[in-house]
Amino acid sequence: MLVQARSAVQDDWRLAQMRALLARRNPGAAEEPPVDILESWARCLDAGLDFSRPVPLAVVEDADLRRRRDEAGRVRELALVELEMLFQQIAGSNFLLAFADTDGIVLDRYADQRFATSHAGAGIPAGSLWTESAAGTNGLGTALACGRSVAVNGPEHFFGQFCDISCTAAPIRDADGRIVGALDASSYFDTRQRHTQALVQMAAAHIENVLLAEQRAAHLVVAIHPRPEFIGTLSAGLLAFGGDGCVSAFNARAAGLLSGLAVRRGTAFEDLFNEPFERFVARLHGSGTRLRDALGSVLAVSCLQPGGIAARRPSVPVSAPASTGRLPRPAASLPAAGEVAEDAAVQQAYTLAAAAVRRGLPVLIQGETGSGKELLARHAHAASGRPGPFVPVNCGAVPAELFEAELFGYVGGAFTGARRQGHEGLLAAAHRGTLLLDEVGELPLPLQAALLRFLDDGLLRPVGGRQLKAVDVQVLAATHVELAQAAAQGRFRADLLYRLDAVTVRLPPLRQRTDFEAAADHALRALQADARLTPAALRRLAEHAWPGNFRELRACLARALLVHPTGLLDAGDVAGVLPPSQREAPGPGLSRLQQGATQAVVAEYRRSGSVSRTARNLRVSRTTVYRHLREAGALD
Ligand SMILES: Nc1ncnc2c1ncn2[C@@H]1O[C@H](COP(=O)(O)OP(=O)(O)OP(=O)(O)O)[C@@H](O)[C@H]1O
């Protein structure tokens, strides 16, 4: 395969050169370089690249980047959700994740703060071009060129300038088997992690499965695996069949599980399995169907999508997705009209929470009071597609001694004051739905143990009763305190924290949101449809720290409308209803609210690195930023 057109002698010579160079670059490496790397080096040499003369990284214009993002459409949407999931899984390990289109151009990147600002991380901006012919052997370019997942470790990069990073990338294919993009994870060579390649491959495989089902919506899609418990996981093979009984799409796992048989688009069902297609369809159940392949192996089969075939045969029910559920589901749920979510961090929180609940993972929602945690939880429930109800419970509002009975239910006469007929409890009420444990940090310690036990086995033990009851509940938890800190201080069980925070989403406080003006405008119009804030009033509101977030904002505006029923509010009008400490000129002995505002300004200044950016992001004047920075002694 390697440089087939050349003579064997030339090949040997070039191969020896490449091996020698790789060995010189990486003297510690004992192993022979992988064949994908050697082949890639050969392609780079054929393309006329010279490793001693690196070319500058090419970056497309903003307009081109925007057009490409639009064109990537659904694949990009799915890739962003996967990148967010990956980001959570490998967070903190100093890496960068990227999605690139088929031309090798990075459309989106997610990075650890540390890596993003490092020399290597800053070298992989959105819009940068990573084909082999432009950047030599590298994760994205090489995965796109060879059509397989690859890891390119440090010195295996063709150009020396990338030798301190490691990339692992996987191409994404659509239902027709065409490459439609690629995912990549890059980190410093010396801190690379072994499991990253598997995670990236799994993310790409999941996108491929969703594309297969969506692009063959009118076809029968089945999952196959030798062991029924693996149906519904990423190890299952997927096969789509058209009405003619021929394969119309398949994933790589299906080809692997049916190795030895000619799995191709167009192959007839009967060439793969020992049964006529029509008979198979007639007896196909949601799950638990068995099927013998043409080589005699028995497979468990489950119908994921009946397609048009169900219309002809109403006897084909769709199996319920397993809780590992990496199966196609509706698109991510973003807030509805009337709710404000233009801020990128907020949108990311919504998308991530939706992606997590579709996989049945617990989600921990972190955010200040009134920042919209419950609203986000309601959206996550809607996105999960679970048929049961959404049940919110405020862990701080129920007296500790009654909480166990509230949560797990009780049998009649279990304690003084108990109802005669007993009470089913909130977890039972949330069966097949979602339970939100709001202010979960307030959960009394003994109840934390009971909740942990429930999360482990899904069984309810009603107070005073003996009978266990199995329920299916998606648990979400919300908190305004840092639970990790509470766990370190022994106020919260660390093992419960690990169960609840499989995925953590953070809602930014109102003062850090880039959509603050829209939020204020929306809150005002919800109170009085024809009311309006002047630009000066908006600026004045943006200077306030809003420790109570949306709730405080609404209360302030309601007060302003009481005083000014005409509804046209100027800076002075809103200043008049802000808490007193916010109206005074700042002086020594700052109030808590002022301290909050100062902290917010300092945090944003440290994050963005400039006074102008801080002013723009927080929507306050540069003078205000300077004032707070001076107060905090944060100006050099
Ligand atoms: N993005 C938004 N757009 C418009 N209104 C919002 C938004 N987010 C929250 N709100 C409104 O703000 C109020 C508080 O929201 P929510 O109860 O979800 O906050 P929370 O973080 O759960 O509060 P707490 O910590 O006090 O429980 C609600 O009335 C909600 O409708």
> What is the global morphology?
globular
Number of separate helices: 27
Computed structural class: alpha/beta
Small-molecule binders here are: adenosine-5'-triphosphate
Supply the CATH class of the largest domain: Alpha Beta
> Spans of 5+ residues with little confidence (pLDDT < 50)?
1-9, 310-335, 582-593
Percentage of residues assigned to helices: 40-55%
CATH superfamily of the largest domain: P-loop containing nucleotide triphosphate hydrolases
User: Which fold name corresponds to the CATH topology of the largest domain?
Assistant: Rossmann fold
Task: Give the count of structural domains.
Answer: 4
Distance between the termini: 61 Å
* Main sheet properties: 5 strands, antiparallel
Residue share in β-strands = 5-15%
Question: Going across the major beta sheet, what is the strand order?
Answer: 2-1-5-4-3
Query: If you compute it from the alpha carbons, what radius of gyration comes out, rounded to the nearest whole angstrom?
Result: 29 Å
Number of strands: 19
Keywords: ATP-binding, DNA-binding, Nucleotide-binding, Transcription, Transcription regulation
InterPro entries: AAA+_ATPase (IPR003593), AAA_lid_NorR (IPR058031), GAF (IPR003018), GAF-like_dom_sf (IPR029016), P-loop_NTPase (IPR027417), Sigma_54_int (IPR002078), Sigma_54_int_dom_ATP-bd_1 (IPR025662)
Domain Sigma-54 factor interaction: 339-562
Protein name: Sigma-54-dependent Fis family transcriptional regulator
